[in-house]
Amino acid sequence: MKAIVYSQNGLPIADPQSLYDTALPQPQPGAHDLLVKIAAIAVNPVDTKVRNGAPTTQPRILGWDAVGTVEAVGDSVTLFKPGDEVYYAGAIDRPGSYAEYGLVDERIAGHKPASLSNADAAALPLTSLTAWELLFDRLEVKENEDEALLIIGAGGGVGSILTQLASKLTGLRVIATASRPETADWVRGLGAHDVIDHSRPLTEGLREIGVESVRYVASLTHTDKHYQQIVEVLAPQGRLAVIDDPETLDAMPLKRKAISLHWELMFTRSLFQTPDMARQNEILENVRRLIDDGTLRTTKGEHYGTINAENLRRAHALIESNRARGKIVLEGF
Asked: Which keywords, in A-to-Z order, does the entry hold (predicted)?
């Protein structure tokens, strides 16, 4: 099968060997696996982080967003059958989706939204899982809470779906941060009630919209840069959820206000095969229904053409520039 891989980590993305086309054997499904013929994929920041930071002894397939058709199923599969269209984000410790065929455990896959094209659906799985788990499993937001949520970096992939989930499914006042006019317009269109500029002090931006403190903060990027301000704007007994990779994160400043800290990593359930692993199937099926009834919409930002090494290098370069808006998708071989 066709696949796009890397063999040496840390190469600059302009180097043709940073991601290259190759051919690999088609995988065979295990007991809980779906063998999926991949139609479309999306590119995430984690793809670039693994390519840069994870050494490998053999060609490694990246990619943790896919849409495709089930070709075969393992002996223990009960949720899907051959011919089903599925979408999923996969597991970080297994080969990814930059290939014609992929394997995914049925417990972390969902039926593709019927109302979306393959490319539009590919934008959703990883960010939807991350945003849903952050909002409802980590921060434990209730449906009718009359509080405020500050989303730092709302224009990215996770922020784009988190803004929708919070504004459509809860009573929260959603305050998004964005530093460029086009990104501010993007998040307003997704349902943000207010937008402030994170290149300025957060306290100033909040004060200008009449907010002294917030109950919840979702810090999706540059947490270390904003950390002191985050502690300042969080209300006593507030909650902070983090998804990025600050070099250090000192929890002591949170003590005085009794602020709770929550890490979100959507790969945790599959990495540790947790008893509630099928929660991700449940989340993806919920998102599918919300897409198909018009409550949520795709967060596709740009379509980068067919799935090949050249186009994937372009996508990685845009993500590494920190100027991506929404999700970058690729489709077909």
From this structure: Cytoplasm, Metal-binding, NADP, Oxidoreductase, Plasmid, RNA-binding, Zinc
246's tokens: 């600050």
DSSP classification of residue 32 = T
CA atoms within 13 A on the CB side of 256: 4
pTM value is 0.95
Q: Are 47 and 319 in contact (CB under 8 A)?
A: yes
Low pLDDT (below 70) residues in the chain: none
**Residues 130, 132, 133, 139: is their CA dihedral positive or negative?**
positive
List Cα–Cα distances, 103 to 29, 36, 97, 121, 167, in angstroms: 6, 6, 9, 18, 34
- Indicate the pairing of strand 148-152 with strand 173-177: parallel
CA angle 217, 156, 47 (to 5 degrees): 110
- Other C-beta atoms closer than 10 Å to the C-beta of 20 total 18
What tokens does 67 get? 């849409």
158/164 Cα distance (integer angstroms): 10
